[in-house]
Amino acid sequence: MDAETKDRILQAEMVLIGVGGEFEDRRLLKGNPSYEGLVQELEEKGLLFCLPLRLRRMQEQAGSRALEALKEAAGLVQGRNYFVIGTCAGGILEEAGFDRGRLVMPCGSLEKKQCPMGCPGGLGEISGRERAALMAGKEISLGLCPECGRELVLNNIFQEKYDERGYREDWARYTNWLKGTLNKRLCILELGVGMEYPGVIRWPFETAAFYNQKAFLVRVHEKLYQLPENLKGRGRGIGRNAVDWMLGRD
Ligand SMILES: [Zn+2]
Q1: Structural domains in the chain (count)
Q2: What's this model's pTM, rounded to 2 decimal places?
Q3: CA of 134 to the centre of ligand 1 (A)
Q4: Which of 14, 84, 146, 229 has the fewest CB atoms within 10 Å, measured from its CB?
């Protein structure tokens, strides 16, 4: 991260961080034979909800530095008034060291499980032991749905009947926090967010920056770093991979 951005973060009263697809390192996995065809394989087996977890394990095996980059970001905002919203559902955000009360993961996480049919009673917490087993690549049972008896699955967006109640409480905390940013010196750091779920981070961040005259948006992405016209002078687009940029010394 460059000195200018670091300074902006330190001078801000509130810091909003968005974490997107570049932290799943798909570029690192391209060409890996077990990655190519993975989606199709999981789809055929009805196990698409395992995708974020499988990607995470693959990226670690491939020597990813994404977790390191996120830890760097977490260290930078420690003890400050910040909030993080991220779309990575494979466990990396939970591990990075952000204060759990300042993190929302609307695409799901490794913290919750649900019924594949979306039965209300199926939503539950994943224990630390279960999570460790999942991360180690073990095929474990997450238990049965108390309502329909089906095997529970991970609570994420790749689930056909994604139970969005899994992140509802965090979401309420997040939107409340956002309301409190108006007229505050807000630094918005958008890291590696592409166009996969633009309505979750990208567009709301632009809106937040537009309506707050004291906000500044730093958008980092290898290709999609452009800022809209109406943010001229109140933002900066940086055309670099966000993981590299976080760990760079420039
Ligand atoms: Zn059920």
Answers
A1: 1
A2: 0.94
A3: 21
A4: 229
